[in-house]
Amino acid sequence: MNSDNASFQHFADAMAGGRRSQTSPSPAPARVAVLGGGADGALVAALSVIAGIDTVMFSAYGQELAALRGGGLTLRGEGPIGTVPVDPASGPGIHTTAELDAALAGADVIVLTGPLHKQRTYAMVLADHVSDGQTLVVPNAGTFGALETASLLRGGGCTAAVKVVELSGLPFWIDGEVPRLTLSSRQALQAASLSSGTLNNAALTPVFGELSESVSVAQTAFSDASAAIELPALLLGGPVAAGGGPAVPDGAVARAEHSNFHSLLGHAQLTVARALYQERCAVASRYGVRDLASFDEALLCCAGAPQQGAEPSAGRRAVPSQMAASFRIRDLVQGSLQPLVSAAKGAGVPVPNSVAMVQLASTVLGDDLSRNGRTLAQLGVSGTDPDSVRRSFEQLTKGAA
Fold first, then answer.
1. What kind of fold does domain 225-397 have according to CATH?
2. What class is the 3-221 domain?
3. Which of 33, 72, 106, 110 is the most exposed place for a label (fewest CB within 10 A)?
């Protein structure tokens, strides 16, 4: 192990005695396959290696793999600190491949990472490659993420008995780009399994940390407040919607480390976010989900911690770049807000603020984002009246359809 990787065993041991000590005593998965070589995929792969799991990462993009193969993946910040080897000649590390079948062979857990369009692509091509007993994990699943993954698998002819699990995010906020990531602590993730009522925590917690298990994917779907909170922060600003951004004296410039995502949400942005979340709660109640988190709890989960005092606070979420924000807006509309609007229509619940936000985001990006958004009809929910739509939805979320 070279000098850059010398700290790997140290922080692997530290994690085994720290956050990983909360995991189930049952055996961890023997092998994890991570699909996607971006920052999300790199983090999941690194956490898998740290947990002592044989880890392989698949990417069809040469640039993604080249960025990792240059010298390993370096992690800094509030999480594990050190450099995880990539394609080492011997010993633990992230093993990379551009061959999907090689990545999937023998994998107990398959993680679909990246933006929404990549997760969808993975789900489609996996249909005739997955095997009985494998678990497919969809982080940052948004609203109805597990349902869409299962629908795409069925559409591709998948007959294997697989478990589809959706997660509300990743264990850490990520700042920076591969091969150097700065991590910030995050609250426990919400998780639910589509194919059964219980999660296989032994297979998930070694990688994703402590999980807050939901009773069903309906619960996690409607608990997804990402669009409600992030879209006002990313789309609304200027004199009329004043308040977004860190507070600084006239003529001063905010320090970069104090410009966090939570600081983008001033009074006006929070007012819009609260209205969007209230609409989500109203729709959720029509589908039998009535115990969603409070708005303040949802705010902390989606925006990270607010700045406290002179030093950057723990749990800080970084402000994305303009390009990253554009990709994020697209995902938030298509994978979080549009499915909520679809569910509202099926239940006969008016959601004017949510509809307006879809249109605003579409105008900003110059594209009709609703065209490719998740809808209940696309997922297999049918019905001509609210009651029949609700019954069809319940059957689907229980794995009966």
1. N-(1-d-carboxylethyl)-l-norvaline Dehydrogenase; domain 2 (1.10.1040)
2. alpha beta
3. 106
